[in-house]
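Appendix C reproduces, verbatim, an entry submitted by the partner laboratory led by Prof. M.T., so that reviewers can inspect both the input and the predicted structure.
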Amino acid sequence: MRVPLKWLADYVDIDLPPAELARRLTMAGLEAEKIERIGEAWDKVYVGHVETVVRHPDADRLVLATVEAGEHRLTVVTGAPNIRAGQKVALALAGARLIDGHSEARVWKTLKPGVIRGVKSEGMVCSEKELDLSEEHEGILVLPDDAPVGTPLADYLGDTVIEFEITPNLVHAFSVLGIAREVGALTGKPLHPPAATDLSAVPPSAADFVTIADPDLCARYIAVEIDGVSVGPSPEWLTQRLRHAGLRPISNLVDVTNYVMLEMGQPLHAFDRTAVDGERIVIRRARPGESMETIDHQRRDLTPDMLLIAGASEPIGIAGVMGGVDSEVSDATSRIILEAANFNMASIRHTSRLLRLRSDAASRFERGLDPTLAGPAAARAVELILGLCPGSRVVGYRDVYPSPVAPRSLTVPVSEFERLLGVRWEPAAIADALARLGFAPVLSGSGGDATMAVTIPTFRSDVTQAADIVEEAARVIGYDTLPETLPTGRTAPVRRDPRHLFARTARQTLAASGLFEAIPYVTVGEADLRRLGDEGDGLGFLRTVPVADLLRLRNPLQSDRDLLRPTLLSGLLDVAAANLKHESGVRLFEVGSAFLPSGEELPNEQPLVALVLAGRREPVSRFAVEGDLDYFDLKGVVETLLGRLGVADWHVARAEHPALHPGRAAELCLGEHRVGLLGELRPDVAESFGIEVPRVAVAELDLDALRAAASPVAGAKSPRYLPVQQDFAVVVSEETPAAAVEAALLGGAGALATGIALFDVYRGPQLGEGRKSLAYRVTFTAPDRALTDAELGKVRDRIGKVLGQRVKGELRT
């Protein structure tokens, strides 16, 4: 918001330099962003008086004007169509820097004397554009008749403007008068409110002239009927203030509404009285399918949650946002209805954003205006209109205010100020500071029991508790008076969320295993989920959700992603497909949440970890031969993850899932409960995601279930004696699970076995039909001795017996 200091000085005496004033206001919570000095560049530009105007002897469109400005009397050649003898104008002397009025760009030029068609021009009479006041260049700037001739233009027309950043909670300061109130509170100067017309003596309009059909969206509506107005240009003082404040002058009636909005903070609007059908105004919600054309000549489609100003049938304006073109004030207007109203802040914000229509009025209403302000603002506007339009008169007035807002009261212990601020102020100083801001404090009691009852004015809706009262007093007395002290006390111990720590360990383990983390969208489409296969009416992977219970977004950013995901795999497979276009193999994981229905307002966010391995196996090692990534690579990563997380007593069992290849699907179980699903995708499922490699291994694990079963992992210890590794090739039936073979191996080895790894699976005619060979590398370590060949031979014999008994397996030699 731009605040010209000459305008501000009408309401409060200012004896501070602009920079100091800006600093004081900033320290009090009103951030001054910059200071602009209008007219700072007007060196050698004066208020001049046009003595004579004669035609140029050699040019039909040029004239010779004799202009006097104090000790300067010049002949100026100009083509300005509006120059006349007797006018007061802006006269620029040689050496003055002006904007080039004939250039579209903002180019500064230094004025030099010149000869135009044989006549020497010694200076220039300036337009608004040349003085950088506006883009107007059709004619020269004509000053008021009382402009002092010979005065530097910067002293007469210049000003200093402070621009403030008004945050949403400072709507009481979103006006020149609001800033003046703050200045008066900080400096102790009295406030001088502007003159206004007493509307209480105006004859009221008919009782049904104004009807508020939706009082939940309109707290107050004032309509003032004025006859005999004449539309024309505004006087220079009014247009000058509007320009300095950043608004473009339009006409006297419109300019008055804008002026009062800037002055007092209350938006106003003037309707052409003849455009209001049915001799009445109705404030109502829009009807279904209703539309109207606003004054920016755009047709707006309205919805039933938008508030309108209407006649008996047709709308004439969008409440608090913009008026309609049919009721716009024009040159022919002679009767108007002046509107001053208070609208629901949430409704105005919603309407403005939905229509993508921003206005100065909407920016104020959406912050929450005081309904009490509408009355003084209407009275002030009437005062200005009657002064600018001689012969005009108020013929009707209606103020509909169903539930008047009353001042509130808060009682604050005086000791609260010292408790919160750490400094003791005299109660009288506190009361004085609050009174300057418009509060009405009353002291009672004494000593430690003293209290202060504070009546809060209606325009301070942001003050709701005792701490707010303390803050108001502190910012007026001055934050710089508070003592500088360091905070004391003990910091609370840091307690990490166990779920976060567990998920972080999972991420670190998977990254260390050679996988890369991906972060896909948390939204999916129903078609994406169906690519993973239907299980009856359910969609998902590890957990399935009935289609009717899927969490659907009301306003999705992408129309094809309107569901919160019940599984991580769909998005991770899309990422894998995109990466396989550039890489020969991918190893991806995501640790995130699936969103499952909970039956309550918020969904159940289920922490999961998902894995996708596809493409070529790289790099190749002694345990990873050249070829394609498959189920066994995936299972090895899962085993590593479970070990690092401290999850024991798990087992893998055969499983079936519509998205997984038959015979290459397994479930990870803890006891009787399934906590994970892993396997290789069916080729058609992989192809539906755009993946064309032979094998795609996927897994999804329940992190919460794993965390519930996890135990602390002991730190690694270096063995005192070197471990010994031996290989065992076990021939078993094709139907025997590898987990059963591994359990038998470890059971036979006993406590000496400290590690085991499957490194080969062989099938061939040497073994016979329906048989396979599983090759394991077992690590043996004794804590108190070095193992001998004889001791290992006995262990090997025991392993052979256990394999035969448990899985009917034979050791290959």
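The chain has a mean pLDDT of 91. Additional entries are available on request from the coordinating office.
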